[in-house]
Structures are given as C-alpha cells and as structure tokens.
Amino acid sequence: MWRRTYLLLLLIRVYFALSPSYLHPDENFQGPEVYAGRIFGYSSKLPWEFTVDHPIRSIFPLWPTYEVPMSLLKWFYTEIGAGNPPPQLVYYALRGGMFLLSFVLEDWAIYELVPSPRHRRATVVLVASSYVTWTYQTHTFSNSLETLLVAWGLVLIRRIVENKQRSSFFSCAVLSFIAVTGVFNRITFPAFLLIPGLQLLPYFQRKPTSLAAILGFGALFASIAIYTDTAFYRPSSSLLSIIRNPIITPLNNLLYNTDTTNLATHGLHPHHQHFTANLIQLLGPAYIVMILSLFRWPLVPSWLRNARAVSAVSATLLLSIFPHQEPRFLIPCVPLLLSCIRVHRSRVFLAAWIIFNAFMGLLMGVYHQGGVVPAQLAMRDIVAANTAAQGVKAYPDASVFWWKTYSPPQWLLGADGNSSSSAAGPAHIDTLDLMGIPGAELIQRLDATVPHCGAVSPVYLVAPTSATFLDEYTATGTPRAPNLQLYRLWTYRKHLNLDDLDFGDDGVLPTLSRVIGRRGLGVWSVRRSC
C-alpha cells in the first residue's frame, strides 16, 4: 500500500515541478538569471546582490546547480547545429533537475535519518505528501538546496558519530564540502547544524585525525569557493590579486543582514513570526499536533528527543533573532519536523493533512503568480502577432510594462531577435517592472511612452485581470484623459495575485470575489484613442 501511495505522490511532485507557478523572485534572479545571459546570450539582468561593491551572493553553489545543466544543453544544441535551446526547454530542464535532487537526495536522507524501520516508510510518505516538497523543493531556490545540504549534513554527522571502529575520513571530507557549500549558499545554514554538530566533539577528542580532516578539507573547499567568487566578480584578476584581495561573499552577506536598516528595505517582522505564522503556513495540521504534544507530556515530548527536531527548533530560534522573516527561510525544518511526529493513523489528522496540502499545493504550486512565466515565454510571439496584425513589415523595439506582478525573469525572453513563431520577432523587448505603483502613475508612464496617433504602438501592458482600475481603459470602456485604450491580446487564467488583497478598503467578500472570480494575467496592447 505504501509503495502505491508513494508512487502517486511522486507523480504529483512531477506535476507541480512542471507547473509554472512563481513563488518568489529569488527563484529566478538568484539562480538561472545569473547564468542565462553568460551561457546563451539571453536577455538577462543581474540582481543587486551581484552588482553592489561588496557582493553578497556566492557563485560557488550555483555552478553545479545551474551552470552545469545549462552548459550541457548548450553543448548538445551546438553539436546538432541548432544554436541555442529555447528558454522554455531550459526552464523546465532546471525544474526537472530540482525534482530529481529532491526525489533522490531528500527522500534518501530522510530514510536514513529515521532509525526505526517501522517508522521509515510512514515518514518518507509523510514528507512526500507535503506541499512544501511539491512546490518549494522543486523550484530553483537557494532554500531548496539548503534543505538537501542540511539533511545530508545530519546524515553524515550521524554516520561519523556511530562509526566507532575507525576514523571516518571520507565522511569527514564530504561533511566539510557540505558545510562550505551550505555556508556559501546561505549564511543561515550553520544555524541548522550548530547544536547537532556538538555530538562530534567527543568523537574528535577520541580521534583527532578526523578533526584534522574536517578542518583541512574545509579550508581547501573554502579556498576554492572564495577563488571562484573572486574570479567571477573580477574576471581580470590574477591569482596573486585574488589572494591579496579576495571577495568573501558569506562575510559580506552577514555584514549586510546584521544591519537593521538594510533589512528594513525587505520588510521587518516581529521576532515571533517564524513560530506563530511561518511554521503554521508550512506545516499546517502537523504543527498543531506538535504544539498539542507540548501540553500532554509532563517532560519533553517524544518528537523533540532527536537531532532532527533539535536542528529544526534551534535553527528557528536563531533565525528569529533577525527581524526579516519569510516562510521559505524555514523550508529545511519541514522534512526534519515531519520525520519526528507520530500520528498513529489518525483519521482526523489524515483528512486535515490531505485538505491542507491539496489546497496549498494548488494555491502555491499552480495559481500563485502562475501567469508570469507563461506570459514571458510567450511575449515575443504575442508582440510579433500583434505587430503583424497591424500590417507593419518592420518590427520596432517593444516596451512591455509589468504592473502588480512579481518581477518578470528577463532570461525567459531568450536572445534578442529570436521568436519561436514562424514570423520574425521584434529586435528587442524592453521589460519595465513597475511593481505596485499607483494606477495614476501607471497611466502617466504609459502616456509618456505610447506614440502619437497614426503610429504603430510598440507599448504593451502586463497586469492581473483582477485590477479593476484598468476597466476604464479597455477597448469597450469609456477612456479618460490621457485617451489611452487597452486591447487585450492574451490571457492566462491560472494566476492569482495575493498581493492585491485589499480587505481594509473593499471588504473580505468583495475582495475575494474580485481576486478569485477575475483571476488571471492579461497582456494588452496600449494605443491612443484617436
């Protein structure tokens, strides 16, 4: 029975891995966007983390995760004489790679971390049935990679401690690599292994050669990581200049995040946010079970009596010190905590667990900003078809304004001048991210860009169809000054903009009716009403 259940959950994970939902801009701009322009010549824009004087993001963990598969695709298409692969193939190949990493490494690690053979199968199925596994772990997040590194760090710590016969030289070398990669991937990584790692102290006291191996390999891998980062950010640097003036991205990241004024630009949260909101959002009914167990047991509940729970709880406590707290920061806690609870086949829990994950899976894995990626992938064809429909032979450069959406990944446009359609596409598409500026300011920006009457308008607007502000400017409405009209060219219905929930002004039911009932993302051609 458990095998059939696990196989079904595996198919569900594949479905969500290939579903183009968009959970957070970092899944594109801190990963694929960095290498797409360098490898394929795609339109791309490096985020600020990579362009400041003291870069805070490391290239070292990105190289095997994104550059290697992208380079393999580039090599394959070059060998068959097909030029560059289309952006949609690269996008789904990376998603497929994240699925494989989750399926192989996460499930394997959880299977090893649970000591009881009787509980292993149930635990693997429970983790595989979490919407976090379906969605976050199959997206290109640094947090998703951190989850795998934390899990395998705990596996190796356990292997080293339990190996009482000889020095675990190989395990120590691998643990050093995981530790260095984890720190250069995210500076939050040490919080998860700090307390469980104390188990190694008695072992190192008995076998100092293992400690020497940990430190030696750690220094080697850290040197490689620092060299890789410095060479990336200063391509013309010599080896001597790298040694004299290295770029240590984890240190830069730590200094940046310990400054509250910097964190304020990303949003400040109360220190209890992780415990009172974020874990609930990630774990749902499982979190309630764990909290209730604290009141049933006179001493420490059973689920807290292992290294997995200690890792998750201690890390959450440490991360709660920082005032900027997002749910994705706690993704490594999800498989660790789920591997600790025992529900004894409770029908109530099972029903609640299925409903919670089905709802959150569809919301986060399908509808959450779900139209951004399909719209960007289709943008060149949309622009080409609209320009051809107006009888224009020469394709002007296009300006596409994005409003009330997450930042569109520019690398999904492909290389300038390319289109997957048979018609020639525009030479260049200028992507203008307006985020959530007021509607009046949006109209001003459009009015300043749209050409005069009689000229073909190369201006487009991408926005949620739930934005009622645009109703007055649709082709069937009555436009107001400055006499602009919107002609819808394309719509993607599986799109929800949760940032557009305005319960305070519109009320709960009207807001839900608007955002859900009019869900979707539209692409409009912006023209003058002449």
UniProtKB/TrEMBL annotation:
One of its GO terms (biological process) is GPI anchor biosynthetic process. One of its GO terms (molecular function) is alpha-1,2-mannosyltransferase activity. InterPro entries: GPI_mannosylTrfase. Keywords: Endoplasmic reticulum, Glycosyltransferase, GPI-anchor biosynthesis, Membrane, Signal, Transferase, Transmembrane, Transmembrane helix. Residues 1-17 form the signal peptide. The chain crosses the membrane at residues 168-189, 209-228, 348-367. It is a multi-pass membrane protein. It is an enzyme of class 2 (transferase). Pathway: Glycolipid biosynthesis; glycosylphosphatidylinositol-anchor biosynthesis. GO terms for cellular component: endoplasmic reticulum membrane. It is found in: Endoplasmic reticulum membrane. Pfam families: Glyco_transf_22 (PF03901). Its EC number is 2.4.1.-. Belongs to the glycosyltransferase 22 family. PIGZ subfamily. This is Mannosyltransferase. It comes from Penicillium canariense.
